[in-house]
Structures
1.
Amino acid sequence: MRLRKVINHKPRRQAAARGLAGVLMLAALAAEAADIEYLYINAGEGSASGGHAALKLNDEVFHFQHVAPGWLRAQRDDFAQFRRQYGDRENRTIFRHRVEVSEATQALLRERFNRVLLIEAEQFDQRAGLAKDRRLLEIFLHRPGAPGTLALKGAGLFLADGWNYAEAPAGRARPAALARRVEAAFGPGFLAARQQALRRSLASLRPEIGDPSALALSADAFQPAASAFAERYADHLSALAALQVLTWGRAPRPGVLARPSAPEFRLDEAERQALVAYRATLEGYLLGLFRSGRADWGGALLLGMARLAALDESIASARLVFLHQAASAAPPSHTAYAWSRAEFMRAKSGLVGGGALDEWAYVGLEQAANLFLAAGEAGSGVAPAATPAWPAEVVAVPPALTVAEWQEALARLEAYQQAYEDALARLYAYNLLGRNCASEIFRVLGQALGESEASIRAESLRRLGGEVSGRFPEFIPFVSFQAVGAHWRVVATDTLPSYRLRRLAQARRAENPLLVDLRESNVLTASLYRWHGGDAAFVFFTDATVWARPLAGGVNLAAGLAQGLAGLFTWPWDGGGNLWQGAKGALISLPELFFFNIRKGSFPDLPGAGE
Amino acid sequence: MTRFLMPFSLLLAAVLLPACSFSTSSKSSSDLASSPSSLVPSAKDKTKAGFETDVRDYTAEFVKSPDGKLQAFRARLGKIADQYGLTHWDADKSTYVAIGKGLRKAGLSQPQYEAFKASLGDSQAWKMDAIAEGYQP
């Protein structure tokens, strides 16, 4: 889809006014010119009533999102992904200032923003690890509400829920071909000895709990997350599960492998031979896992064995058999089907003529096959998760500690977890007026440019053309956008209209514009928009009209109030959902009475496969 | 009515104006549904490049950190690889080339570089060769 693009070049006289020094500096920068983009995303009902701000560096968008429980976290998205979410699903218009900078400045900013992400990733990973540890200890202690079992990633490829490593499996062991190769490579009895060693190691596992008084977190210091006890425990279980699958010769569970009958999945001899070669590569890798220093080798072995089984069937049947990854439901879409078919055929043709198949290519084929299968079966264009999780709920047998010892460990863990939570809250608390999505961009930017206010100002002037502090009122997203336009070296400004506005413009070109405007002005007759429960009740769209906004806003206000009123009666059934939505609808209709628009209507179910 | 609504609306607008996007985890970058193009083979090179960049950046930070443990390094690499759908990251040459780039980016001294090359490369020749390849300017 072509975009309406409005480029406003800055008047030359404005550049001249910056003086000779500035011109010379621009000339020097031109030799290694790059650009950055400051993005302002206008208001929307669902998640940002006041708009959003972001910084685009090449294809990456860095921004800060308000997350539960009231914190602000750095985020990095691919621009296409960012636009899909904000511009299409949330139906919001994106405004962009393109700012000319040197390559060195672009790299400097990318480095700083990415460092923030890396620091946060470690700290929040540590937080997630503490939560997992606590849950596991509660399982061990059979606390009320604790499930009693543990979701073990990858185990569900072969094992049913309720698997217990401490119990001997039923049936007769028929070691897999891979098990024989392992024993040939590492000696007879190797697998049994490995299992014994793992059991001993698991029994001696202990949680390592930090001292809350020694906790020192900083938003500027990179500190690798310590390995969580729950992760070490799960790694042991995964390894034991993998060894049991190997030594008992388990086949993948029903449903794990997809065996589609469509003609596109047929393999010619060259494609089949490519899979034969990849099978040998994969088997060699799985053998190597037994020498690996990876703690999570068991999970990799489970996944690899499932793929070996898929490859064996593919090679035997000359039809592509692959790990089946469930795609979530989405509306049928002919374009999603055509797109996913083309992508699958392209991936399949890559089996031959492109050198030896590697994991990147095989996983790409597997994912493309799943997308195509999902699009064909359910009309869904939704991509599966990157790596199939296939968890099974397995019995969590505790390592050898007494109940009193576990209770003591849990008490210490809870104290440490609380201290960690408090420390994170101090670092990352969202503050409407002092620490929000716009102010944080300028704070990090300042960190990249200098250490003192004077040096930041000087470097901002040199590298960006001027300074935007992010302090009042520049922490308001749209004010920050104006400030960037006024102070930075902006060479172009353009607008990426929201999804609905783009579709509306298309329709106006194809049909009678007056009829289109009338039809699409309200949710009752609109063909581009279907009301859904995620949006509060409303009648008129007011984002494309200005003068009629107060009148339409009055009707929308009434609709919101009506939904809220109905919510009083439906409360017992919907948990107050309608009441809340109605109140929200009424509130965001109020500004419309004074020509201010927040509501756009959203499209949360847009498939990911493009238009 | 207007006398009531006007200040209320302005107050509401003043409160809401600076509000930022509220995220749910499903809307984060891990929401691959919003970016299927990053998964398909035609985008393979871009995806691989993204993986290498992430490994490089993480390595550069890790080796500068005073309390990094090798097991934590491997665990993080596994998580980065998982985001790209890669399981056998420890057998993929690109992982070690990216580690080498990270060591270069960290600006280590030669002895530090040699020590990290051996430890992060598991003292295996092919891994250390790949690290050296990535370390080249």
2.
Amino acid sequence: MNILIMGCGRVGARLAAMLDENGHKVTILDTDTYSFRRLPASFSGTALFGNGIDEESLIKAGIETADVFVAVTQGDNRNVMACQIAKYIFNVPRAVCRIYDPLREEMYSALGLETLSPTKIIGELLKEQIEGKK
Amino acid sequence: MYIIIVGGGRLGYYLMKALIEEGHEVLVLEKDARVCKTITDELGSVCFRGDGCEASTLAEVGTGRADMFVAVTGDDEDNLVSCQVAKHKHNVPRTIARLRNPKNAALFKKLGVDVTVNSTDIIIEAIEHEVPTHPVTQLLSLDEKGLIIVDVKIPARSTLVGKMVKDLPLPAESKLALIIPSKGSAHVPVAHTILQPGDQIIAITPSQHGDALEKLLRST
């Protein structure tokens, strides 16, 4: 699969490395080239300087042929906007969006975006860890 | 009207002052406590400290009864999200977003923002209007009808000088609405009106014929 990841933070870089290892064609975007240090030396995909809410950068990164778009920058709103561009302007089959704010996550999930809220997930996991699984 | 403004920067501040003067009920949402305090000290309790993208903040300030929601922060993504939350969570009838990147206009419309305003385009238009070498200015675009209103100055050596309006090969659905001659008062052109050098013409045309109309009116 052609996978385009926006945001080369810890999560973005790790996801890129794992998908790359599994044989997918990965392109990762970040507005700071220094972030690309997080990618392992073995990474065979493409790391590109660019802004994921800018259509020209997205085209350069090959969004028109992407099967999956993943938005994992630090900004909830940036992720939401980028995913909506991917989904509604470029018709990418799947656009996955990280949204820290659980309320915003619920709303965009109801509006049809594929969303994940780390806040909800980690909170739940920690609670289980502490209380023990039932 | 109850109008909520997101972003208490310079734009939000002056917009709020203007709207209050017009007698509207206005509330500004601003994340920065210091900015919020400055506004409150000067204008009273018209600023609420909070994130305009959060549904809970919007609920707290009664967004459900707002007639209009205007997002004028410096970031397009924040303006988009706050307008979407206002629209989808609180059913605000009219949402307006400021754009930094003019290219986002189509996306915002598609995603349910009713009106977008971008200073870049407005400033460019104003400058073009002042530059004499640029004789065609787009004054207004009526997006829903797909029409634009343009302002064209007929060059002195134009091939159209001396011709009657009825003889002009205007693009389909294009109309000359008003002629402002270099001397004398403005008049509405009729079929037998003869074009004079230096006439300023206000014309209306479908946006796809804008270039053709410009070419015709400027032909020399």
3.
Amino acid sequence: MATKLRAPGWYRAGVMSAVGIAFSYGLTALVRSLYGLDPVIDGEAVTVVALIAAPFFFLIGLGAFDYWFYWASGRPTRPEDHSSHGAHSWKDYFRINTDHKVIGIQYVCTSFFFMLIGGLMAMLLRAELARPGQQFVDSNAYNGLFSVHASLLIFLFVIPVFAGLANYVIPLMIGAPDMAFPRLNALSFWLLPIAGLMMVASFFAPGGSFATGWTAYAPLSTHAPLGQLFFTVGVQFAGASSIATALNFLVTIITMRAPGMSFWRMPLLVWANFSTSLLVVIATPFVAGSQFFVLLDRALGFNFFNPAGGGEVLMYQHVFWFYSHPAVYIMMLPGFGIISEIISVKARKPIFGYRMMAFSLLAIVVLGFTVWAHHMFVSGMQGWIRVPMMITTSIIAVPTGIKIFSWLATLWRGVLRLDTPMLFALGFLTMFTLGGISGVMLAIIPIDIHVSDTYFIVAHIHYVLFGGSLFTIYAGVYYWFPKMTGRMYDETLGKLHFWATFIFFNATFAPMHLIGIEGMPRRVADYAEQFAGWNLFISIASFFLGLSTLVFVYNMIVSWRGGPKAVANPWRSLTLEWQVSSPPPVFNFDQVPTVVGSPYEYGVPGAVHGIFKGGAEAKPAPAGTIATAPTPD
Amino acid sequence: MRKHLLAQMLGIGSVAAAAGIAIALAIDWFPKQASAQAGRVDRLFDVLLIISVPVFVLVVTVVIYSVVHFRMRPGEELKDGPPVHGNTRLEIVWTTIPAVVLVALCGYGYAVLHKNEASAANELRVRVNGVQFAWNFGYPAAGGQKAVATNELYLPVGQAVKFDITSQDVIHSFFVPAWRLKSDAVPGLTTHYRVKPDRIGDFPVVCAELCGLGHATMRQVVHVVPRAEFDAWLAKQRAAGGAAASGGGAGSGAGASS
């Protein structure tokens, strides 16, 4: 038992968490007695300290820092024996593991876990909204539900699930054995469940969960009950995870590309994550800052956002949106990368305008930092700044338009495989266009003044993040499922999932445009009688949308356990991840690949992207393997 | 075959776009217009619809045409498409045209904004004060008469109004859908907007910024009335005077709900 408690793992993590909570009690009691505060033990103060401190004790117990501690204390570090590489049983997914493929799967599964929780909350919200008045939850619970729903789906689902897919795929795509910093990678992952559980646990805080929206505007948030701090601190952990992963991607992409893999030979998914990582590294510290200000105001009586104490309320929004607008691109660019891969492979054509596709990503990165105040057209900030923000916001539609048109041109005269990943890619193209169009409308100030903070915004954000991001996530998960699990998913269920999602997604969110323009504000548990009809319709549609998710979950679980074995390259793709076995060997490549051409040369006779030493060329899979690939209908 | 296909797609796409525009314009999107500003906003929205619908139809048409005409047929499992890598002229076209259209839209948007926010002679100044969870209103002292503080909003029709908006606690947002106007009420700041109500009637006033537990029910009414009726109402308020005025922000919105 004693050795078990000393070895890194869940036993030690449990003990250390208890130590962390004891530490929080001790520290607050000490400080409060020194200041002569009564009572010495104050539950709220202990909770705040424990929220920040206990996760570190937990991570130390789990073993996230072991190697660094050995190194820092001058003790002999165990030479990297890669004993923590690879997963041999399901238990290995619940340990500190430095294999990017294991971490990728940990990320994706954790994110979908929180996605299902967040989705269930949406079902409760829609149940309450089915009729005017109060039926199931009171307004405090309602405000908590939509706040946690948004926070989970943004910080614990869309952002990390992209990081997870990229974690799995990028080292393989660029011909690297792993990420640049595998131990940092493991730490990045383990910060996530902490953030997620903290946000979910906020419901058990006295006064209920945080109920100020995911935007947590001050001064509402600085005067909210204790649950608010579960968000404030949780965001720090999710943000730290995000920043560390982005750094890891940047270093990996810059330094670990296989010989011959120049930037202009990188698949667009790699370009997309390179761009996203730039956004994350530059922008995410701002949301961390905004929440630290709230923490200091709320917990220690600072006056950042208290006008009576010289504070400035609008500052919160500027700092918050300086992150949270780029965050929209953090939640979209990786999806652009996924779609570029899928459309090129499934249309059997080179991606149209490869260099413009890469440049438009970088243009979005740069422009993304110049539009934040379009979230504040009615905030009362100085009026003149709205006009340049309107122009930059409109102009950012140009690089986005380039991408849409280039995808369409890639489809044109291709030989389209209409399987599940492709259906989701095409669904994304059309739905994201709608989200982009409503985005341009929102950029035009007089329109924004009317629809700001109405259901039009709810519709827009869901067309962008559900019809946009989530469709690309589904596309990517189906596309790489054979590589990640070594099994094929069920194509019929996949198509059923697509059509159910596509139809009920539109039925749920399209009418929200209308009730928004008619003047129904968002974030309300109750609404005027005139909106009752549409809300009932939306609620019913949303329940079917929720049910459609179960088809996906069932397909994933059953196919992972017992689906037909996948061949190395079921899609006859040229990119490197498909040239190794499914799932790939522990260190990805038994022979280092050399990249000799573009990743998208479909239709070019004899074209190769990468070759392996020993002459095994990256040829499309032989015809015999087609039998296991899904047949298009 | 290719030329024929493009022409056919163009034809069907144009018909679909025209039908789409007709449907989009036929939908009754907005609540009833009740201000001079509202008409301009609604017209701007119509223009945006007319430009947006063809963009959406274009994307959908190309996707559907590709699915129908270029889907893989049995026996084509190993077939690839033509290795087209790009077309510089096409890429310049679809970069330039959207840029020009978007800048033009911004110009139009700015023109509407400029008109909607222009000051007028003889503006009535009305103070708006948001508190959790009600709106209070103040009318300035005039001609030696006392200022009025009340939880009811009455405005004379056809009179240009400038609101001075603030909040006592957290951020609220003073939204009148029938006017197409809103502005946040921010503690420590006074924000403004101008409106010229041009329709007599009662219109909902909504709080659009999440402000706490009572946010959903922070709904009141603005009464736009003929000039004489307004003058009579205001005189009565001034006569009632002091008591309400000192009440300031403490009033409840109980008396007014939509």
4.
Amino acid sequence: MTTLGQLCLLIALVGSGYAAFACIVGWRGGHGAVLKGGLAAAWAALAGLCGAAVILAHALLIKDFRFDYVARYSDALLPVHYSLSAFWVGQEGSLLLWAWLVALVAISYRFTAGKQADGLRELAFGVLMAYACFLVAIMVFAADPMRPGLTARTSGEGLSPLLQHPAMLVHPPIVFLGYSLWGVPFALAVACLVSGRFEAAWLRQARAWALVAWAVLGGGILWGAEWAYEELGWGGYWSWDPVENGSLMPWLAGTALIHGLLAWQHSGGLKKTTLGLAVATFALCNFAAFLTRSGIFSSLHAFSRSPIGWMFLALMLFLVIGGAALLLARRSRLAAERPIAGLWSREALVRLGVLALVLLAAVTLAGTLVVPVASILCGPRIVLGAGFYNCALIPAGFVLLAAMVATPLCRWRGSPTAAGKQWLTAAAGAGGIAAATAFLRGARHPVTLAVAGLAASAAVATVAAWILDARRLSSARPWLRPLRALALRRRQYAALGIHLGFVALAIGVTGSSLAVRSHDATLAQGDVLHWAGYSIRCLAVRARDLPDRSILAAELEVSEGGATPYQVTPSRAWHRPLNQWTTRVAIRSRWDGDFYAILRGEVEPGKADLTFQDNPMMRWLWASGWIAAAGAAIGLGPARRRGRRLPEARPALLPHAARSNRH
Amino acid sequence: MGMVQALLVIGAVLSGPLPGSNGTIRGTVVNRSATRPVPCQATVVLRIESGGQFVPLRQLESDSQGRFRFDRLPVGAIYRYLVGANRDEVHYPGPRIVLTDGRPEAEVELGVRDAVARPNPLLIRSLEIVIVPEPGALRVSESLRIENPSSTCYVGEPPPGGGTPVTLALGIPADFERTTFEKEFYGRRFAVADGKVVTSLPWPPGRRELRYTYVLRNDHAYRCWERPLDLPCSHVRVRVRTSKPNDVRCNLPWLPAECDGEILFQSDDPILPAGHVLRVELGRLPLGWMDYARPAALLSLIGLIAATSCVLVRRRHTHPKPVRGSKP
């Protein structure tokens, strides 16, 4: 089977390489036969990668230790469902998954692009296949997942117990899918820059793919945060680990890209920035791969030291330099079509948001790079904590929230209407009331008060925009107007829904960062602890042995203010074969906060060392992901039919329309 | 069943004197690091065989004269005892003892040693290395006879940053695939730290034989195998099992081989210092099929690209040039 798997990889290498060549050459010369050959080669590459993926997955499921990869990341006692998560835990397996996803995305793009994008489609497809070829080449020449083991084994080295968590079945593949999807806007941007055809089709396609990539990568990041919150047992969900930052940076740059695409579509501005962001987002995905695969950082996420990471860094530098050169070459055709209409126009707010997001990505990049650069230049290692990131995160976060408050009531290429201005004032008033209410309920931190105010303002502004849109529909029945407004401006309201998701994220992050309460205690059976309104009774401290681990668990009964008590069981496990401890925290979640219990160990037999935390607003943080995902799903639906528009709504100013106006 | 029996034996022994519990093991702990044995204080542990393993039964401290005594022990051939002494966190096992009705008492002398962290007294009295090239791999077997010629027990120094002291670090190439020790005892006591196979095993005076095999992945026709010596070493022999003797070179003198298909190199220095690097250069090694398939795949891709380019160039001469970017 290892031989068959290696053969599949070789087919994928030849197929993807030839597909990239044939699509680019075929596009340049308009050779239909060559393009067809390229497409056939791409199918062969996808088939090869599918074959390799199936073989590796099968080997992991049946625990075929003849595969070196299986022997390194699995063992005879590993449960079947986690055997599959071993697929993406190692360097070679994750590369196979990534290459397979890139090939799948490339083929999907090729067949969904439509005829309007014919001028760009083949070239963009060629770029995507070239990237797939790069990943396959790394596997074939440096990180072969099908490599046979040299010694006969009856069991393997096992999967790290920290990675034996349901979130690990989802988080890594989703992050890799996100990285793969960002390849489409990048390939389209390269196709535009190379061909010099900045048509409306590229904006429509790039927006759709960027939105999918944004939602998928964002979901992957949140899933990873949830895993850290539940599995690592340190009480938090984000530690500014360089590798965590690696996935956050493309997400931030991608968010800016989506807004840049909107600004280009509606106001004919931010063209160079948008194309630059498309290249930068994809380059940052490769930078994330460099961080995990070079071994310059020791992290739970990082793979072992290898030259593979440096290949990704080289690719990233190539992309940055090549992208900058293409942008310079095409700069004369990428000038803004008109100046910004005013400070309160929607394009001005979008530019402000893009600036804040780029600043956030830049600060995260600087914070990530300063550690290795300082260790090279100064010797001793520098560690940057949350304080460094908060210096940029808090002001930039406020700028974003403030822009979100005003956006629904502002218009493209114009100032808000009189009614819009009134509602803006009302939103500001609602924000003030919310901040005052938060103050009266005990919140004192200025950031908490500001977030409460801005969140309320954003919600009021969104509802106000809806009311104003519904009023314009004089032809419809009054009770139908709000629904028709939603239907007719589905994409806009989907975007506003995503903004509300971001508001929920801000509430969750602020609450869980600024208002956490923590208490350490040692409890034996029958002991009762009264803390922060909770009454915690220790029912038992139990130890039990399983074939591969020893588990220590504390059974606790928790009651709050006379409510029905509930039971939680934080535990710790000692995994004997890997000589490693893991912690399973116990969480009781509510909308106002989580009760979070960590078992640190046993002070003496029957006496548990515990840490309790009250983490406010955590559920808002997780809900933000679902709200944003729902918004993205609604926004990705098919476009509305022509002629069914809201009155007074201006037609989208696409570049070709703008050009024709000038003639 | 064996485990049940063992538990019954231990349970019976611990529960109180059995009808035949009149056995005694007594003796003295002596420090043999001095020129003549000196009685010394130590922790004495009595173990009893249970399920094929010796498990601790009783423990006591010897007195200032090194004397100890375990009374009221069950006698009979089914009870096998092992007595040993702990000193400076090193365990010194004594003899195995069986008490019988005819001989219910046994007297033993347990020898312990002073533990030293430095200098390292260990020497390799003989090192025999066998290298077997296989397709895509080199299989290397090493046999070391390590001797502590001093009268003390070498326990090693903890590393500067703290941690477990290392008494022996094997200088085998860091890209080894897996090291398999002939004796499970050593397999359990060696671990990989920073890419090196190390142990914190204490080395009392005397000799120990260490045998292990490791595999090195190889995807090149030429490979230079290098191995720095871990300790000062005498009698170094390197055997290479190959049918291509002309493709093997070594920095040790060549000797006529004892059998066909084998090349033998042996050091003529009486002793080689620690750190001395043994080097064997191997040419025309057998490779795995993937080592041939990779360049073949690359050549196929280049061939396809070249063929397509040729066709396109020929077509350009015979057909008018189509408009760039137009739909095919």
